[in-house]
Amino acid sequence: MEKRAIFQGRLLPFALVAPQLAVTLVFFYWPASQAVWQSFLQEDAFGLSSEFVGFANYRDLFAKADYYRTIGTTAFFSALVTALSLSIALFLAVQADRQLKGGTAYRTLLIWPYAVAPAVAGVLWFFMFQPSLGLVSQGLRGLGFTWNPLLDSTDAMALVVMAATWKQVSYNFLFFLAGLQAIPKSVIEAAAIDGARPVRRFWTIVFPLLSPTTFYLFVVNVVYVFFDTFGIIDATTAGGPAKATETLVYKVYSDGRVGGDLGGSAAQSVILMVIVIALTAVQFRFIERKVQY
Amino acid sequence: MVEHRPFGTALAHLTLLIGIAILAFPVYLAFVASTWDAATIANGKMPLTPGPLFLENYWRTLFVGTSGTTRQPVGGMLFNSFVMAMTIAIGKIVISLTSAFAVVYFRFPFRMTIFWLIFVTLMLPVEVRIYPTYKIVADLNMLDTYAGLTIPLIASATATLLFRQFFMTVPDELVEASKIDGAGPMKFFRDTLVPLSVTSVAAMFVIQFIYGWNQYLWPLLITTRDDMQTIVIGIKKMIVTQDALTEWQLAMATAVLAMLPPVLVVIVMQKLFVRGLVETEK
Known about the structure:
The complex is a heterodimer of chains A (about 290) and B (about 280). Chain A has about 290 residues and is mainly α. Chain A has helices at about 10-40, 55-65, 65-95, 105-110, 120-130, 135-140, 155-180, 185-195, 200-210, 210-225, 230-235, 250-255, 260-290; strands at about 40-45, 50. The mean pLDDT of chain B is about 85. The longest helix of chain B is centred in the first third of the chain and has 32 residues, at about 75-105. Chain B is about 70% helix and about 0% strand. Chain B has one domain: MetI-like (MetI-like fold, Orthogonal Bundle).
């Protein structure tokens, strides 16, 4: 799409884009290219010199069981958080989409967790599940379950999944509600007249019409779990116990900072970049195709 | 409603109320904890209703600091978070308005190249290039400065994309009328385009303010001095995982203070926020 009415000017447009272009080049393209370049280098133990090693960092990465475990953890974590937050949000959105009294109030009361910082969400959930004084841990102990996210890897994973889901439900809810409200009521009424019951109407009409929203949210949620959950993980389990909650982004951080392995960390960054670009590309292609009808 | 079902409606109200209660529960618990003394929480017998120490705990959290000397008071961190969120929001809006204006209303060499260069930044969050970005900020002597805290995060295209889409819907007649009146491009931008964009700008402000306020990894890396810390970082540092030294009542007061500004912004500006979010991201 192009504008018909435009202004003349040679230098002015460049001056107008200059600030954004400068910031983007200095703080986006330069570091991104540095990351790619660094992933082909290996620094010596003192960080004094570095040597070009080709794909050695990548080979090292894929030679270690460590990395596969982190991939597995990330995949499991993403799948669980995405599935839970999407289904809970869809369920709530369907309820809120009925023309209820106080609809706006419900929406307000359901969307605010979007504004809570992931790290704060992590701290809130950690407080409830803190092994000795947490309210929920005590309840669990009362029921005969031992619970300790600081020692038990399953408990730790459960904790980060809950906090991450809690934080994401509101975002998904908002989009599902917008999607549901865009579906023409006449279509649903027609099905109702034909005698289709609400559950059947939902699965045969509403859900398919929501599929672009669902697909969009699916991609956004995966990206959310990959990156934004860093704060949740760092504030609750710090990747532990025994790296049970270490995701790919967390590993980039801890290998670079604690391990001092900048080459390996950079190689991991590059792999992550490829994953996000692929996800985004898939999303655009899919949405473009969907938009046509 | 398609058909009248009083039972279904009641059930919908009930499920929504349960959903709201579950979402609110962790925050309620944090608030209750922030009004009791350390011992009551530490022995695990915290009541489910607010205690007597509301004013004292919040006063200590904001102005005194925890454990007397070991932790900074949160007041300064709140200020840093506020500066960070405002700078990121305003910075992004300003550079995005001008660059979107240039891309939509001018024809110049490399226009599409520049647009794509900006557009690609949408895909990669700062986390994937965290160390190289850190190094560049360090080389530029911007560690522990507000500039270092904010400028690298301004480099993303969400706002540019939204404004570009909005400008596309502005009728061409306005430009022509403006030209007939003898107005130059900057006058059109200032007197016509920006006033028309007020709602989009406000929506973007809400989203970017929250984005800036909630940053974690970036400030964690580039701030080393206590007085440059943001509140989202500060709260994590109050929680000592291994032992009973955590002053939970103050940590929870900090958590409540850390989420109050962004949550208020979302609730007060709800309409704009929802519009901005759904429009930019789809």
